[in-house]
Every structure is written in C-alpha cells, then in structure tokens.
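Next comes one such specimen:
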Amino acid sequence: MIPRWKITKYLNDVFSGGTTCQQFTEVITDYLEGALTFREWIRFQVHLGLCVGCRRYLRQMKQIIHVLDKLPDEAIPIEIHEELLRKFETWTSRETPPPPS
C-alpha cells in the first residue's frame, strides 16, 4: 500500500506545480486581496485542498484580519506602544523580558 503522504506529494507536484508550503505563505496576502493570476489561483487552490497545515494557516490569517478590522482607529497610548516594542524585542531574541518598572 502506498503511504498517504506520497500520494499527497505526487498530487501536489502534478496539479499545483509542486507548490510548497513556503510558497503558499508567500502569496497568501495576494490571494486574500484577489491579486493572483488565474493560474496562480488554481495552484493555490490545489495546494490548499491537499495541505491541512496551509488550510489551518489560511483560516488563522482570516481570523487575524477579522479581529484587526474590529480594532478602533484611535492610536494606542505611547507608554503601551513602548512597552509592546520592548516585549517584542526581547521575544525575538528569546531573552527573558525585563520586569515592569
């Protein structure tokens, strides 16, 4: 019996031109904005149909957009902005964030 992953890889290679998950994530914004060519859209749809991980990723992106659309247009206070920047800087460097002052 042929393993499922081999069948999925074969179908992806044949019908989506071998679109990888990395390529999928690189064009997801274009997909959501309707900016893909018809051929790119077909390849995207085929990969989407074959890849559970990319379907999950697309669903998460849509949820993020939906939540962000609900945020108020007013700017956040500068103190909160600076605190968020500090946290992101330490998060990307994987260091423990400094205690709040």
